Amino acid sequence: MKGIILAGGHGTRLYPITLGVSKQMLPVYDKPMIYYPLSVLMLAGITEIQIIAAPQDVPGFQRLLGDGSRLGLRLSYAEQDKPRGIADAFLVGAEHIGDDAVALVLGDNLFHGPGFGEILRSSARDIDGCVLFGYPVGDPERYGVGEVDAVGRLLRLAEKPAAPRSNLAVTGLYFYDNDVVGIARGLRPSERGELEITDVNRTYLERGKAEFVQLGRGFVWLDTGTHDALTEAGQYVQILSRRQGVRIGCIEEIAWRMGYIDADTCHRLGLALSHSPYGRYLLEITTAEEKGE
After folding, report:
1. What angle do CA 199, 124, 46 make, to 5 degrees?
2. Range of the domain at 280
3. Could you tell me which of 209, 231, 80 has the C-alpha nearest to residue 153?
4. What does the pLDDT look like over 64-93, one tens digit per residue?
5. What share of the chain is helix, strand, coil (3-state, %, to 5)?
6. Bridge-partner residues for 148, per DSSP?
7. In this structure, are 50 and 105 located in the same domain?
8. What is the pTM of this model?
9. Residues in domain Nucleotidyl transferase (predicted)?
10. Cis amide linkage into residue 37, ω under 30° from 0
11. Please, what sign has the CA dihedral across residues 70, 74, 79, 80?
């Protein structure tokens, strides 16, 4: 399975902060926002990942992450000259996807919860159709919404409904088989001139190939696209770090724990960042591993 991070757009809800920098480069506590969606794909077992961004923002991501080899990844970059909807990512990234299945995650989404990595890896195995991830919210009218039956089977999808029939928002994480490229090519743009991801998902639902995984109690899903949400996400990450010693979205640690790099490599990456608490954390966990603590 290939991975795509959609990090395009202008971040207008965060103006004036994003007038000079990509939204996905803004800090969420101790690391750039894009580390969080990247960590999701890494936890899913995906190592070939393309980052899609506006032309002026691609060089910044390349400076930050390079070709991914230091993390045992293969990263590539593609330009989206203007926002054309989430589903446009499959057209921009068609060559990257090739004949494989694909996971798409939005660049401003943060996920955290118990056993999340295993849920991701299980959902990505032998995918036939699409897998959507639902999360209960208090304001479902702001999102794409999934309606399920008594056993959790997906019945309907609605995009920002005025009268939602469910409180289950469709999050910014999607798994698809290779048919998604052809489906995206056949979409009609919306009135806004965009290719809507809900139309892609409805196509799979009509084929009887849409699975809906509910992220319930104990999970956190945050869209960091507004000033308040960005602040709240940073506070959430900070609290977990200070009280539990848990660092969400630490891509070097995930690369090590997933076996993409070894402990020595992770330690060296920590040394390069050792003037920061983030770097010292990497040194601490690799040193503890060496001592068998």
Report:
1. 105
2. 262-292
3. 209
4. 999 999 999 999 999 998 889 999 999 999
5. 40, 25, 35
6. 154
7. yes
8. 0.95
9. 2-235
10. no
11. negative
